[in-house]
C-alpha cells in the first residue's frame, strides 16, 4: 500500500528551487521520514545513495577526517557502489543527529556543491540541537513531516471519497450517501491514527489486533528513546509526564496540572522534561492567550497550557481505549471527555496554519478550545465530539469580541449560519479552504 503524502509537493518545490540547500526533514520517530524520502528519490531521481549513521557507525570516521566535499563524495560513492551524480542522485543521510560532523558538512555541501541534492532525516534532531550540537545556521532548508492526516488516510482507503471532499466548494450539506461513508472512515482513522505502519495493518491487512500491536511497539520504542538519549536524572521525570498525558486530557478543564504528574510536583522540576517531549516531536503544547488580539503571541500566558500528543492513534493506545468502541455509535469520539477528537482537530490545524493554535478562557464562564489566525482575523474554534452541539463558550466569546467567523467542529453536517461555520469532523483538513471561500462570498 502506498500512502500519498501531501508533503511531496513541498519536496518537489525544494528539488526545483534555484536556491536549493541541503534539506533536513524533521518529525517524530515512525511517522514515515525514511520511506518518504526513499519514495521521493525513486520517483524523481535516477538513483539514491543512502547512508544511515545509526546502523553504520563506521561512516562517522569519513566525516571526522575531512571537510572537503569532493573527497567526501568520492568516498561515499565507493561505499554505495555507484557514482553520486549532480541532479541524478539523491544523497540521503538518515539519523543524521548521530553524527555531528555530518551535520556540519551540510554547510560545505551548500557552499561548494550546490549542484548535489542532499536530504537528511533525524527523529531526535530537535533534541540533539538543543543539547548543544553545532549546526550550520542558514545553510540548510527545513521541512517537518507530521503523522498521516485523515485526508491522506482517506486517499489510501477510498480515493473517490477524497475526490468528493476536494470538490466541495459551497455550504451545501454533504449528501447522506457520502456523509455516512465518510463518518465510517473517520471512525477507522481513530483506530490507527496517523502512524503509517498502523494504517497499513488496518487498511491492507484488516487486522485490528496487529494495528494495536504496531501502536504498542511504537510507544515502547519511544520509552526506549527516553533511556537512550536522555540524561539519567531526567528519565523518570519524562516518563512521569508522558504517562500522565491521558489523565491530563481526561479532565473537563484540560489545562496541564503538575500535580497529576506526581504528587508535590512543581513546574521548575518538570519543565525540562516537557521541553524534551516537545523537541522530540511527541507532544504539542497549546498556550493560553489572555486577549484574542494581534499578534496572539504578545498575549500568551506561558504558565497556562494544554498538552496533546502528536498522534490520535497513539493517544488512544496509550489511554488503553479499546477499538471495539468503534462499533458503539459515537462512543469513541465522546469517551475520554472528547480528548481524542480535540487531539485530532489540533493535528489538522497544525498542518494548515503557520502558527500553532492557542486557547482562550474567561475564568469559569467560558473556554474556547483553540484560537487560530487566518490572514488578519482571529477565529475561535469549538470542538464537539458528536451531534450534541449545545454550548455557551462560542456565544460568550462572540458577545465579547465579535469575531468575523466562528468555527464549530462536530458530527453535524456542513453549514454556515451567519458567522458560525459548522464543519463536520471528517472535513477538518479543509478548514483553510472553507475559510477561503467564505472570504470570496
List keywords for this structure.
441 residues, alpha/beta, 5-stranded parallel β-sheet, 13 strands, globular
What does this protein structure show overall?
By secondary structure, this protein is an alpha/beta fold. Helix content is 44%, strand content 17%. The protein contains 18 helices and 13 strands. The strands form 3 sheets. The protein has a 6-stranded mixed sheet. Strands 2-3-4-1-5 form a 5-stranded parallel sheet, with helices on both faces. Helix 5 (100-112) links the parallel strand 3 and strand 4. The chain is globular and about 65 Å long. It starts with 7 loop residues before the first helix and ends with a helix. The mean pLDDT is 93.
In short:
The protein has 18 helices and 13 strands. The protein has 441 residues and is an alpha/beta fold. α5 (100-112) links the parallel β3 (89-94) and β4.
Query: How would the global form be characterised?
Result: globular
- Helix count, DSSP H or I runs of 4 or more residues: 18
Largest sheet: 6 strands, mixed
Strand proportion: 15-25%
Stretches where pLDDT falls below 50 for ≥5 residues?
none
Report the helical percentage: 40-55%
Distance, first to last CA: 40 Å
Which strand order spans the largest sheet, edge to edge or round the barrel?
8-9-10-11-13-12
If you average the pLDDT, what whole number results? 93
What structural class is derived from the secondary structure elements?
A: alpha/beta
Nearest-angstrom radius of gyration?
A: 23 Å
Number of strands: 13
Walk me through the topology.
Elements: H1 8-15, E1 23-26, H2 33-44, E2 47-52, H3 59-65, H4 69-80, E3 89-94, H5 100-112, E4 117-122, H6 125-130, E5 141-144, H7 150-157, H8 159-167, H9 176-192, H10 196-203, H11 208-229, H12 235-249, H13 267-279, E6 283-289, E7 300-309, H14 312-318, H15 331-334, H16 339-352, E8 358-362, E9 366-374, E10 377-383, H17 393-401, E11 406-410, E12 415-417, E13 420-424, H18 431-440
Helix pairs in contact: 7-8, 9-10, 9-14, 10-11, 11-14, 12-13, 14-16
